[in-house]
Amino acid sequence: MAYEFERTQRIAVLGGGPGGYEAALAGAQLGAEVTLVEREGVGGSAVLTDVVPSKTLIATAEATNGIGEAADLGVQFFTRSESGRAVRPEVTVNLAAVNARLMRLARQQSEDMKSQLIKAGVRIVQGEGRLDGPQRLVVSTGRGAAGTDFDEIDADTVVLSVGARPRILDTAVPDGERILTWTQLYTLQQIPEHLIVVGSGVTGAEFASAYTALGSQVTLISSRDQVLPGEDADAARVIEDVFKRNGMEVLSKSRAASVTRTEDGVIATLSDGRTVEGSHCLLAVGSIPNTAGIGLEEAGVQLTDSGHIRVNRVARTSMPSIYAAGDCSDFLPLASVASMQGRTAVFHAMGDGVTPIELRNVTSNIFTQPEIATVGWTQKQIEDGITQGEVYKLPLASNPRAKMMGIKDGFVKLFARTGSGTVIGGIIVAPHASELIMSVALAVEHRLTVDQLARAFSVYPSLTGSITDAARAMHIVN
């Protein structure tokens, strides 16, 4: 008796960022034949030039801040002069060493991810890839004498994870020396004397915060009424107050018309004619998906007006055999979301059990000092009547652990469904808010009530105590 065995499914992944990496691992885990195409290195820009290096830089900035604020806790640093007198030392940052370390960590993370893929049985092809129809990739490997060798990869399923790149202004062209995108900052050998940051969104605010802590004079140009437009108004107000208290100049309702290089620095001209002179300028004005010229339209993949790939909640595009994950898609541009999209895409393609991604359950974090972590519905959505909910805000200043640590800024804010008390969202503004938000995220994901959240034991004293205190204050009377 002859048996017919089903052929092993073939998965081709274009782009080795968080989404592509997780898609490849998931495919290998489910027994597929997986090929990953990446032009730079596994991890993509998230690991090599974006998330890993930027958050490593921010960790150094936090350490610098901690030393500067230690005196408030009674810790003082002195050295001895030749005469034996106590002299307060100057805290300095060796930016060349910092950048060398963070790029080394980025390469190490990339190599670790590559090793994991190889161990799982994933075939890795280095080169420039593009679609040749809905089930084929053509990869220019550059291995031939003329650099024109090609690999053709046929697949049952294609996962696109090609990422995005910094948006460039025609009137502010980066030169990699004085006018920089966030991917070019890591070549700097010295702390900028005066850094002009154009753009007060997440990227601009994070780098403005970090370089202020590292010792730069920083001018932040914001086209909106407040920094971090679109974020919780109370959180943005706290961050802007901290920025100004730390010596940052924030130019609100100001738009940069151009940035040009001078003999020994840069000059930013605003739309109202004012000028700002500095030593360096960081452009943080958004990003553009890397979707042009890779055969998407020819393969029948629908794009948005901005060039992002349209996907549904399981990361599937308009073509059944093609999925997309990460910043190239029209979903939320977060590394954690890209990873979840990559896994979800492959599970769905191979018929495994899958839960469609619910964006309202996604946690996000802004790595300023203090951090802003959010999950679920927002206060504005409640105030606009989009959903019904109650709001409770508890300043961190009342938290005993915060007092011990010298924390003066920040709060915990919870949102609960009117009537039932189900937790539908929350915001934490605090040091390491990215670690504190997890308990609120679990409450949102599993539809816990404020009473159920309050019954969890938080350590005393701890910053998480403010979460259970806020939940307790929202008690639903039965």
From TrEMBL:
Which species is the source of this protein?
Salinibacterium xinjiangense
Q: Key word Transcription present in the record?
A: no
Q: Which cofactor does it need?
A: FAD
- NCBIfam families per the record? PRK07845.1
Residues bound to NAD(+): G199, S200, G201, V202, T203, G204, A205, E206, G286
- What is the residue range of the signal peptide feature? none
Subunit comment = Homotetramer.
The residues that hold FAD are: K55, G129, D327
Identify which top EC class this enzyme belongs to.
Answer: oxidoreductase
- UniProt catalytic activity: a quinone + NADH + H(+) = a quinol + NAD(+); a quinone + NADPH + H(+) = a quinol + NADP(+)
Ranges of residues in domain Pyridine nucleotide-disulphide oxidoreductase dimerisation:
364-470
Q: What is this protein called?
A: NAD(P)H dehydrogenase (quinone)
EC numbers on record: 1.6.5.2
